[in-house]
Prior knowledge:
Shape: flat
Number of strands: 0
Order of helices and strands: H
Distance between the termini: 37 Å
Helix content: 10-25%
Structural class: little secondary structure
Largest sheet: none
Amino acid sequence: xxxxxxxxxxxxxxxxxxxxxxxxxxxxxxxxxxxxxxxxxxxxxxxxxxxxxxxxxxxxxxxxxxx
Length: 67
């Protein structure tokens, strides 16, 4: 029988009315208009007629692995 360990995560309490800081990330953050884009850079490149940023070009990658 295989034994596995589980790591307990800390719970973070966010006070009401306090907004989380927006961090753009390496690709400029989340897309604002194009739902098909995986990030802001991808959205901008597609709007300019390019293929996109390339971080989501493989079927093995998902939006969560972008950049």
